[in-house]
Design a protein that fits this description.
- There is one protein chain.
- The protein is built from 2 helices and 10 strands.
- The chain is mainly beta.
- The chain has one domain.
């Protein structure tokens, strides 16, 4: 049995986690009827900071390079195996995946693609979604990033509130030092 979900990016950040800089992207997985959704976070494995960066004891605040305005575009994806909203990434500490960030088409949009993600139903999936870039602020690195996708929470779907992102305890995972 197959199931249709829609994907939409909510925000993208570069986060200083101490010795590493990580890319973090928040995205939503929306049910076919657009009544419920699940929030997910991709967190890259990170790259080592330069010696100059390490010499500065103060961590830089997270830099948001992408966002989603009201409306956005929900990109449909049909899964061959049946999964629930909370079963895209099934490991509590995150499920391995690759994120591709592409800004080559335009400076206004960031194309995102999750690849090599194994769902709870053991289906390996790939799907796209997008973000709007902040004027003049693109990620310092683009291309492919290895990392993990982490389930954050489920919520009722409201297109007008999507831009607010996940609420409650999930917020600390997005820009905090963990993961």
């Amino acid at each position: 049995m197959s199931v249709l979900f829609r994907f939409n990016g909510q925000a993208g950040y570069e986060v200083d986690t101490g010795r590493l800089k990580k890319i973090r992207v928040v995205f939503g997985m929306i049910d076919e009827k657009r009544t419920s959704m699940a929030w997910y976070l991709f967190s890259s494995d990170g790259v080592a900071k330069s010696k100059v960066e390490l010499a500065n004891p103060d961590k830089m605040p997270p830099e948001e390079f992408g966002h989603r305005g009201v409306g956005g575009r929900d990109i449909p994806h049909t899964f061959k195996k049946n999964i629930g909203l909370d079963e895209l990434a099934f490991r509590p500490k995150g499920t391995s995946a690759t994120l591709t960030l592409d800004t080559s088409g335009t400076k206004r949009f960031i194309e995102c693609r999750i690849d090599q993600l194994t769902t709870k139903a053991k289906e390996v999936v790939t799907f796209p979604f997008g973000l709007q870039s902040h004027t003049g602020l693109l990620p310092s690195r683009t291309g492919k990033f290895k990392g993990k996708v982490l389930f954050l929470e489920t919520a009722p779907f409201d297109a007008n509130k999507f831009i607010l992102g996940p609420q409650g305890h999930a917020k600390i995972f997005i820009t905090g030092p963990g993961l």
